[in-house]
Structure prediction request, 139 residues.
Amino acid sequence: MKGAEVILDDEAAACLSDEEAGAAVRVVVVCRLPDSPLVVPLAGGAPVDLRSTANASSSEVVQGLLDSSLQLEAAGGIHPGVVDAVRRVAVPPLFRASPWLRRYRPLVLEDGHIVLAGVRVIYRIDRGLCVEPADLTTG
Prediction:
């Protein structure tokens, strides 16, 4: 992965005031399919395009995404910079179109990880989300 683009749009900024300041953020963990804009929820299911609102009312799609959700907390061992960086990620169109998902941010893993705030966030089946210092020279 070459780096994560962090964008703060107007809706993301508005949601920041609704959450505890810097303490936690709700995320949906998804894995990007290689060479594709599609992602697969961590809990499994059909690939979805976060940029499209076509499946926003599909209970199967929404439930699959919610089954892949969790709350990142700085107090829970997640680097505070990671929590802040994820909070600043724009809410994708699919999430904005769903009343169930609009307060979540996507945590998009590529090759099993994402680098945010100089920290590599990895999902391990046996341990969940783990953080480690990122070697930003490789990728």
